[in-house]
Design a protein that fits this description.
Structural class: alpha/beta
Largest sheet: 8 strands, parallel, barrel
Shape: globular
Number of strands: 9
Strand order of the largest sheet: 1-2-3-4-5-6-7-8
Helix content: 40-55%
Distance between the termini: 34 Å
Oligomer: single chain
Order of helices and strands: HHHHHEHEHHEHEHHHEHEHEHEHEH
C-alpha cells in the first residue's frame, strides 16, 4: 500500500469541476466551521473564496501564532552540483541545457559552509541535480558527513531514492527531505519530464512513502505552480499530506509554494498564479492544518515576503544562491533559476524582527531525542 492507492481514487477533471462550481454560500458555511476538513479545503481554494481572503488571513494568523508563537525559522540552500540526467522543460539544470556543469569538491563545500556559517545559519538545505553517477547516495552521504558538525539540521532536495538509501543518510545525520511532485496531473507531468529517471511519475509519487518507512524526521511537499491548474494541484498536495500524516504520524511535514521563475531557456507558465491566489492558498493550508510548516523561498518578491509573515508562513530562506559554489567559490556560474528577493540575511532578519517576530535558526536538536529516551 502507498499513496498511489489513494491517488488513483481521485480524478483530476472531476476535482476541477467541484472546485470551480463552489458558491459564496458554500464558502460562508465552511468558514463557520471550527474544524476544516479536506473536502472544505476545496471550497477555500475555489475562485468563490477570493472575496473572503481577509477573513481567512486573520484566522490563519491567529492559528499560526497559537501553534508556532511569534517565530520565523530561517534556512539557506547550498547547491552542490548542477549535473543532471533528466530533461525537465522548466529547469535551468536540464540535461539538454548547454551550461557548464560543476560539482563541488570537499574543499569547495567547506569554503561555502564557512561563508554560510558567518551569516548565522544552523539549518542548511543541500541541493543537487539528479545525476546518480556523479551525485548519488555516496556523494550525498559524504557531503553530510563532511559538514555534519557544522549544522544542527541538514536537509536535502535531491533525486528520489530507495528506502535503504534514505536509511543510510538518516544514520549519517539527515534531518529532512524535500521532494516536490511538480504536478499531480499525470499527462502534464510526462510532457515536462520526457527523459531521465524523473519521468517515472509513480516512483516520484511514492517517494514520501519510502521516506516515511525509513523514519525521516521531516518531509517537505509541494507542487511547482505554473505547470497546471494550481487549485487542483494544491488539493492533491493536501490529499498527500493528510495520507502521510495518518500513515507516518511520527514524521513532521512542510509545504512549499514554488512558482515558476525565469531561467536560461525557460518555460512560460501554462497557468498563472497571482499574488492574491498565493495568499489564498497559504491561508487555506493553515486553516486545514495547524501543525504543517509553511515555507516561502526567495522566489517571491520583497513586498510579498514582507507581508506573508503574518499569513501563516513559518520558515523562509534568505540570500539564496541557486548555483553550485554561488556563495564564495564561483558566484558567477549559471543559476538554476533567478531569485526575486535579493536582500541579505541581515536585512531579512531585521524585517522579521521589525514585525514583532523572533528569528529561529534551528527548530530541532538531536539532544531532544536523547532526552526523550532517558
Amino acid at each position: 500500500m502507498s499513496f498511489k492507492n489513494t491517488f488513483e481514487k481521485y480524478d483530476w477533471d472531476t476535482l476541477e469541476k467541484e472546485i470551480y462550481k463552489v458558491t459564496a454560500k458554500d464558502v460562508e458555511k465552511v468558514l463557520l466551521k471550527e474544524k476544516i476538513k479536506l473536502e472544505d479545503f476545496k471550497t477555500l481554494i475555489s475562485p468563490a473564496a477570493k472575496p473572503y481572503i481577509e477573513q481567512m488571513a486573520q484566522r490563519s494568523n491567529a492559528i499560526t501564532k497559537k501553534r508556532f508563537g511569534n517565530t520565523i525559522q530561517m534556512y539557506i540552500p547550498m547547491y552542490l552540483s548542477n549535473e543532471c540526467q533528466n530533461i525537465c522543460t522548466y529547469c535551468g539544470f536540464s540535461m539538454d541545457n548547454g551550461i557548464r556543469r560543476k560539482t563541488l569538491s570537499d574543499a569547495e563545500i567547506l569554503k561555502e559552509v564557512e561563508h554560510i556559517k558567518k551569516l548565522g545559519y544552523d539549518h542548511i538545505l543541500l541541493v543537487t541535480g539528479e545525476a546518480n553517477k556523479t551525485v548519488g547516495v555516496s556523494y550525498i552521504k559524504h557531503a553530510i558527513d563532511l559538514i555534519r558538525s557544522q549544522f544542527s539540521n541538514i536537509s536535502i532536495e535531491v533525486q528520489p531514492l530507495d528506502q535503504e538509501d534514505y536509511e543510510t543518510l538518516i544514520t549519517s545525520g539527515l534531518y529532512a527531505v524535500l521532494v516536490y511532485q511538480e504536478t499531480y496531473h499525470k499527462a502534464t507531468y510526462k510532457t515536462h519530464h520526457p527523459k531521465g529517471r524523473k519521468s517515472n511519475f509513480d516512483y516520484r509519487l511514492d517517494t514520501p512513502d519510502r521516506l516515511g518507512k525509513a523514519g525521516i524526521h521531516k518531509i517537505g511537499l509541494g507542487a511547482l505552480f505554473g505547470l497546471e491548474d494550481w487549485r487542483v494541484d494544491s488539493f492533491y498536495t493536501a490529499l498527500h499530506l493528510k495520507y502521510l500524516q495518518k500513515t507516518y504520524w511520527k514524521t513532521k511535514y512542510s509545504i512549499s509554494f514554488p512558482r515558476l521563475r525565469p531561467h536560461q531557456g525557460g518555460l512560460a507558465p501554462k497557468v498563472e498564479m497571482t499574488d492574491t491566489d498565493l495568499v489564498q492558498l497559504i491561508c487555506a493550508y493553515r486553516l486545514l492544518d495547524e501543525d504543517v510548516e509553511l515555507s516561502l523561498s526567495t522566489r517571491e518578491s520583497e513586498i510579498f515576503r514582507n507581508h506573508s509573515i503574518h499569513l501563516g508562513i513559518t520558515s523562509i530562506s534568505a540570500e539564496s544562491k541557486t548555483n553550485p559554489g554561488g556563495y564564495s567559490v564561483e558566484p558567477e556560474s549559471l543559476e538554476q533559476f533567478e531569485i526575486s528577493d535579493e536582500r541579505t540575511t541581515e536585512q531579512i532578519k531585521h524585517m522579521i524582527q521589525s514585525q514583532g517576530y523572533e528569528v529561529v535558526w534551528k527548530d530541532w536538536s538531536k539532544s531532544y531525542v536523547n532526552l526523550s529516551s532517558t
